[in-house]
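2024-03-11 09:14:02 DEBUG pipeline.ingest accepted 1 chain
2024-03-11 09:14:02 DEBUG pipeline.ingest length=331
2024-03-11 09:14:03 DEBUG pipeline.predict start
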Amino acid sequence: MKIRYIIYILILVFIMSCSKGEKIKISRSFVEFTTDVTITAYGMYESDKEKVNEILDSSESIMKYFNNEMSPEDKNSTLYKLNDEASKQKVSVPGSLKKILKISHNLYNYTDRNFDIALRPVIKLWGFNYLSEPKLPNPIKLINLLKTSSFDAISYNIDSIYFPDKNCGLDLGGIAKGYSVDSVAAFLNENGIKDYIVEAGGDLLVNSLTEKIIGIRHPRIQGALIDTLFVKNGAVATSGDYEKFFIQDDTRYCHIIDPKTGYGVSDLMSVTIITDKAYLSDAFATAVFVMGKEAGKKFLIQNNISGLLVCGTDDNKLEKIGINLEKYKKQ
């Protein structure tokens, strides 16, 4: 009897397993934050496809929500309205922006002012994100705008904000995508999806039982990879001078502006950062790119942050500098 009972249980488990079908991956792709976004859930059963698609529908809505809240250009966004109102009077920080502004202010201090969301006036002056063709700004106007383009130039605390100068404004472009990716990841976890990748442009978060191969884009060869990383759990973000840029008088000017000089010029071509949060990787990649090779290396080492720096050499070759990457590389 006992043997028959065991056999019966085994057959029942086998039948139930077969009824669910083979495990598959289910993906959703769309455009948000002016970039391609892809959310992929792995190890899903065919029978759960409808439920998973409903979760991915909600995930897409989360990305859309944050884009609508944090766009500096959309007149209907919360951030746009904040920029407009805070230039006239002291206003309360909206609940939807309170956390990300606090995080951004902390990162401003943590990175020695190399990550600054109050740089919007200078970014506008260059024309990145605002004009069809960015160009070198008038140097006198740039110098004057720098005086009002930093966290130090505005009146801010966690509950309220005021811009003493009408030119002041916030731009969350260096952290909004990563913040949104983290929010989607948290939603997937809450709904029982534990094996996934959320990717938005150069930002992605991996949560998996197995390593996923992450290709790092070559900063000078379209469609090529400069390196690969093997990530099981972690957030990867890359900032580089190859997305939005122009070259004038043999100098490459890109959209990643140094808050201290007002120029988008670095001795680095790209920076890839791995942390446990996409918003941190996003912001640190921007800050380290601004810092440059030597200061960026020092920052990563001192703070035990994993990163890959890519820069040029005197003989026109590429140099890769890996910091704390041992667990993300195949031995």
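2024-03-11 09:14:41 DEBUG pipeline.report The CA atoms of residues 50 and 72 lie 35 Å apart.
2024-03-11 09:14:41 DEBUG pipeline.predict end
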